Amino acid sequence: MDEVTGPAVALSGEAIQVGWAVRNQGTGPSAVATWTERMRLSADDVLDAADPVLETFVHDGALAPGATYARTETVTLPRSINGNYHLFVETDSANAVYEAAFDGNNTGRTATPVAVSLAPAPDLAVASVAAKAAATAKAMPRVIRFIVGLLLVGRWVIPTPRAGGRRCRSRWPGRAAPRFRRGRPPWQ
């Protein structure tokens, strides 16, 4: 890994561009043409297993001895982070390329950390509440009649258009159904 570059400052949750260059320092070409590269974020300058992976990329194309390729990708920083962070790139992160004893140089990081500040937080507030007048005028008397009927008479159901305007019977044993005309309780 030759170098890793990133922005000097960024906001949490922001998409940033990170660039890196990879060189084959060996004497032979890469035996495979495809491998993965992983980008990680670290609060210090040491890469360890606790550092989160931001993104994984696939490299296509063999690399001849002494050859180099450069790549720039866009990654999104995690939300709600704040502080100085290094960006690490691991090439051949799954060890697809056999390099004998030379795997130790497959990781690079930004020379200086990226200063990440918290992005401004939204503050959602209800501006207004409105109800449809037609729905309220029709539905509320029916709901009130139902609740009053439950409290005063027992368990019964207000007739609905689906019931065809029939009187409803009490569902409580030992109680008679209320007597009223056209589905309305006598107290109305």
Brief digest:
With 188 residues, the chain is mainly beta.
Describe the SSE topology:
Elements: E1 3-5, E2 9-11, E3 15-23, E4 34-42, E5 53-60, E6 68-76, E7 83-91, E8 107-109, E9 114-117, H1 133-152
Parallel strand pairs: 2-9
Antiparallel strand pairs: 1-3, 3-6, 4-5, 4-7, 7-8, 7-9
Question: Describe it for me?
Answer:
- The protein is mainly β.
- The protein folds into 2 domains: 115 residues, Immunoglobulin-like, CATH 2.60.40.10; 58 residues, no CATH class.
- The chain is 11% helix and 30% strand.
- The strands form 2 sheets. Strands 2, 4, 5, 7, 8 and 9 form a 6-stranded mixed beta sheet that branches.
Helix content: 10-25%
Q: Provide the low-confidence segments as ranges.
A: none
Number of strands: 9
Q: How much strand?
A: 25-35%
Broad shape: elongated
Task: Identify the CATH class of the largest domain.
Answer: Mainly Beta
Q: CATH-wise, what's the superfamily of the largest domain?
A: Immunoglobulins
How far apart lie the N and C ends?
85 Å
Overall tally of domains: 2
Find the structural class using helix and strand composition. Answer: mainly beta
Q: Remind me, CATH topology of the largest domain? A: Immunoglobulin-like
Number of helices: 1
CATH architecture of the largest domain: Sandwich
Mean pLDDT: 80
Q: Strand-and-helix sequence, N→C?
A: EEEEEEEEEH
Query: Rg from C-alpha positions?
Result: 35 Å
Outline the biggest β-sheet: 6 strands, mixed
